[in-house]
UniProtKB/TrEMBL annotation:
Major facilitator superfamily (MFS) profile domain residues: 34-273
Main location class: membrane
Protein name as it appears in the record: Major facilitator superfamily (MFS) profile domain-containing protein
GO cellular component, one term: membrane
Organism: Notodromas monacha
UniProt keyword annotations, A-Z: Membrane, Transmembrane, Transmembrane helix, Transport
PANTHER family: GH10249P, MFS-TYPE TRANSPORTER SLC18B1-LIKE PROTEIN
Molecular function per GO: transmembrane transporter activity
Parts of the chain that traverse the membrane: 38-56, 76-96, 108-130, 136-162, 183-203, 215-234
Alphabetized SUPFAM superfamilies for the sequence: MFS general substrate transporter
Subcellular compartments: Membrane
Transport keyword on record: yes
Amino acid sequence: MEAEMIADKKRSFERSYNKPKTCFSACFRYRFVQWLKIGLSAVICIVAISIADTFLDPVMEPYLGPQFGMGPGEVSLMFLVTTGSFTLTGPVSGWFSDKFPEWRKLQVAVGILFTSLAFMLMGPSPFFPFFESNSIGLLCGALLLHGVAIAICLVPTFSILLDAALDTGYPDTIDTFSTISGIWQSSFSLGETIGPFLGGAFLDLYGFSKATTTVALIIALSGLMVLMEFLIFFKGCSPADRDSSCNTSLESSIESGPLLKSSAKINTYSSNH
């Protein structure tokens, strides 16, 4: 008899223990799926930006050495053009992203499209036959634009991911920040792996001009995707909503609407009685 009572208590404890765990797991899966719907475009953009940032690593020295007779010192200075412009533009990009959070996705889209343009100018691309080929001035200008554009589009991506997580119900805690930071770093690392591989492969297959053109077209697709998402978002929000960042999802607004109306009716009824 005593053994049966102990077994019943054990089963009751297991049910009470597993129930919240199952509920938490279901809530987590739902929120994660909802977050993917909102934040997936940002993840794709982070990967694309990282590819653009690392594509030139295995490409510059094999191209600049034979083409312009540059040694290791001159090649490192060419890399410095990109990193220097990124360093100077990064704080400005961060300030703009914090000042105008409702324009973050447009900022990312514009930055990616300018990055694509920079790659087009490096070759220069066959689409730009009017530019002089083998021009060191054009190449330096393209590298300068490349660094500025990367800073414009890369800086707001973390905030976009974080906003997407908070909008889908994740708490504003250090755990959420850590999770988003891990997703951001994983996405960027994936691009860092793909970028040099594509750079070396495209250079061997197509040459420098066609290689930069190919990666420019690939990157431009992600920019157009986030631009279309921003335009749909912008068209669906009123000016008042855009001023307040318009971060509330459609589902939450539908759910909160009847609650607000019912609350207003209760307040009206209370004041009349």
